[in-house]
Task: structure prediction
Amino acid sequence: MRLPSAAQRVQDALAALGCGARVREMPETTRTAGEAAAACGCDQGAIVKSLIFRLAGAGGGLLVLTSGTNRVHEKRLGRQLGDRLARADSDFVRATTSYAIGGVPPVGHATPMRVIMDCDLFDHTAIWAAAGTPRAVFPSTPDELAALTGAEVLDVT
Ligand code: 5CA
Result:
């Protein structure tokens, strides 16, 4: 089956990283973590939210991979990183990742970014992340995702 070009770019990025995961286009929307959990038939906590923040001090983006049921404590995470996290608007997200909000994947971005991963994702054996479009996802495991992204694992809540 042919993938939309944004999802194919994620599939290509995974392959280039030596990862055999297969991107799937779901029949239903996976735009939000709740919708993605319903479509994948998994716990919402096993959905990976790929969130982009702006580093107010250093400039540039920060990718935070968060469990689908968690909220990032921006002040606390900023303190841990020695910077201040600002909300990224949709233009910033598109410019830094080359994907639109709702389909931002954890890999294959336009700009390499520092990556933080929520330690709560390690409570799940199988996890699902967005793959470029609001209907595309790919399966992974916490260890694999951390290796693929070079993430630093932290408590982000
Ligand atoms: N495909 C799903 C699940 S894999 C997904 O991408 N979920 S998500 O949570 O990672 O992406 C939506 C996130 O984008 C929201 O949690 C929110 O942090 C962010 N977002 C949504 N609307 C905006 C907006 N207008 N500006 C900035 N960020 C936004």
In short: Strands lie at 24-25, 47-55, 61-67, 85-87, 114-118, 127-130, 136-140, 152-154.
